[in-house]
Amino acid sequence: MRPFEEDLELLDTIPCVARRPAENILAEIGTMMNRFPSEAHLSSWSGMAPGNNESAGKRKSGKTSKGNKHLLSTLIQCALAASYSRETYLSAQYHRIAARRGSRRAAVAVGHSIWSLSIIF
After folding, report:
1. Number of separate domains in the chain
2. Looking at the domain assignment, is residue 17 inside a domain?
3. What are phi and psi of 50, to 5 degrees?
4. For 62-79, what is each residue's pLDDT tens digit?
5. Which of 78, 83, 85, 90 has the fewest Cβ atoms within 10 Å of its own Cβ atom?
Protein backbone atom coordinates (compact mmCIF):
# COMPACT_ATOMS: atom_id res chain seq x y z
CA MET A 1 0.00 0.00 0.00
CA ARG A 2 3.02 2.32 0.02
CA PRO A 3 2.40 3.66 -3.52
CA PHE A 4 -1.10 4.69 -2.45
CA GLU A 5 -0.13 6.47 0.76
CA GLU A 6 -1.54 9.82 -0.38
CA ASP A 7 -4.90 8.26 -1.30
CA LEU A 8 -5.02 6.44 2.02
CA GLU A 9 -4.46 9.68 3.91
CA LEU A 10 -7.31 11.33 2.02
CA LEU A 11 -9.67 8.45 2.81
CA ASP A 12 -8.53 8.56 6.42
CA THR A 13 -9.89 12.11 6.74
CA ILE A 14 -13.46 10.79 6.44
CA PRO A 15 -14.92 10.37 9.94
CA CYS A 16 -14.93 6.75 11.15
CA VAL A 17 -12.87 5.45 8.22
CA ALA A 18 -9.63 4.25 9.77
CA ARG A 19 -6.52 2.94 8.08
CA ARG A 20 -7.70 -0.68 7.57
CA PRO A 21 -11.07 0.18 5.99
CA ALA A 22 -9.33 2.72 3.75
CA GLU A 23 -6.96 -0.03 2.62
CA ASN A 24 -9.92 -2.32 1.94
CA ILE A 25 -11.69 0.34 -0.10
CA LEU A 26 -8.60 1.01 -2.20
CA ALA A 27 -7.95 -2.70 -2.65
CA GLU A 28 -11.46 -3.28 -3.97
CA ILE A 29 -11.91 -0.30 -6.29
CA GLY A 30 -8.37 0.90 -6.94
CA THR A 31 -7.47 4.47 -7.76
CA MET A 32 -8.64 4.60 -11.40
CA MET A 33 -12.08 6.16 -11.05
CA ASN A 34 -12.47 6.80 -14.78
CA ARG A 35 -13.85 3.24 -15.14
CA PHE A 36 -17.09 4.48 -13.61
CA PRO A 37 -18.94 7.25 -15.45
CA SER A 38 -20.59 8.60 -12.31
CA GLU A 39 -21.02 8.18 -8.57
CA ALA A 40 -24.24 6.26 -9.18
CA HIS A 41 -22.47 3.66 -11.30
CA LEU A 42 -19.83 3.08 -8.65
CA SER A 43 -22.45 2.94 -5.92
CA SER A 44 -24.42 0.37 -7.89
CA TRP A 45 -21.32 -1.71 -8.54
CA SER A 46 -20.51 -1.80 -4.84
CA GLY A 47 -24.05 -2.82 -3.86
CA MET A 48 -24.81 0.38 -1.93
CA ALA A 49 -27.45 1.69 -4.34
CA PRO A 50 -31.02 1.30 -3.12
CA GLY A 51 -33.50 -0.31 -5.43
CA ASN A 52 -36.43 1.54 -6.90
CA ASN A 53 -39.37 -0.80 -7.38
CA GLU A 54 -42.46 1.28 -7.94
CA SER A 55 -45.63 0.37 -9.77
CA ALA A 56 -48.84 2.35 -10.10
CA GLY A 57 -47.64 4.88 -7.57
CA LYS A 58 -46.93 2.25 -4.90
CA ARG A 59 -43.40 1.85 -3.63
CA LYS A 60 -42.57 -1.78 -3.14
CA SER A 61 -39.12 -3.05 -2.17
CA GLY A 62 -36.12 -0.75 -1.77
CA LYS A 63 -33.64 -3.58 -1.34
CA THR A 64 -30.05 -2.80 -2.27
CA SER A 65 -28.58 -4.36 -5.36
CA LYS A 66 -26.10 -7.22 -5.36
CA GLY A 67 -22.54 -6.04 -5.51
CA ASN A 68 -19.07 -6.41 -4.09
CA LYS A 69 -19.57 -8.21 -0.76
CA HIS A 70 -16.22 -7.23 0.71
CA LEU A 71 -16.68 -3.55 -0.03
CA LEU A 72 -20.25 -3.62 1.24
CA SER A 73 -19.25 -5.18 4.56
CA THR A 74 -16.41 -2.66 4.98
CA LEU A 75 -18.77 0.28 4.45
CA ILE A 76 -21.36 -1.18 6.84
CA GLN A 77 -18.66 -1.59 9.51
CA CYS A 78 -17.61 2.02 9.01
CA ALA A 79 -21.23 3.11 9.32
CA LEU A 80 -21.67 1.20 12.57
CA ALA A 81 -18.48 2.78 13.88
CA ALA A 82 -19.90 6.16 12.91
CA SER A 83 -23.00 5.45 14.99
CA TYR A 84 -20.84 5.29 18.12
CA SER A 85 -18.99 8.53 17.44
CA ARG A 86 -20.20 11.74 19.00
CA GLU A 87 -21.12 15.04 17.43
CA THR A 88 -20.59 14.06 13.81
CA TYR A 89 -22.95 14.36 10.90
CA LEU A 90 -22.79 10.61 10.22
CA SER A 91 -23.73 9.76 13.81
CA ALA A 92 -26.68 12.14 13.73
CA GLN A 93 -27.78 10.72 10.39
CA TYR A 94 -27.57 7.15 11.72
CA HIS A 95 -29.65 7.90 14.83
CA ARG A 96 -32.21 9.92 12.88
CA ILE A 97 -32.78 7.12 10.36
CA ALA A 98 -32.56 4.30 12.93
CA ALA A 99 -35.40 5.84 14.93
CA ARG A 100 -37.69 5.66 11.90
CA ARG A 101 -36.48 2.74 9.80
CA GLY A 102 -34.32 0.50 11.99
CA SER A 103 -30.64 0.04 12.64
CA ARG A 104 -29.79 -2.08 9.60
CA ARG A 105 -31.34 0.31 7.11
CA ALA A 106 -29.69 3.20 8.89
CA ALA A 107 -26.32 1.46 8.61
CA VAL A 108 -26.80 1.02 4.85
CA ALA A 109 -27.82 4.67 4.45
CA VAL A 110 -24.81 5.92 6.41
CA GLY A 111 -22.57 3.53 4.46
CA HIS A 112 -23.89 5.08 1.26
CA SER A 113 -23.09 8.54 2.64
CA ILE A 114 -19.56 7.42 3.50
CA TRP A 115 -19.29 6.01 0.00
CA SER A 116 -20.36 9.34 -1.47
CA LEU A 117 -17.70 11.12 0.59
CA SER A 118 -15.00 8.68 -0.49
CA ILE A 119 -15.82 9.20 -4.16
CA ILE A 120 -15.01 12.89 -3.83
CA PHE A 121 -11.42 11.99 -3.09
Report:
1. 1
2. yes
3. -75, 150
4. 667 677 788 888 888 989
5. 85
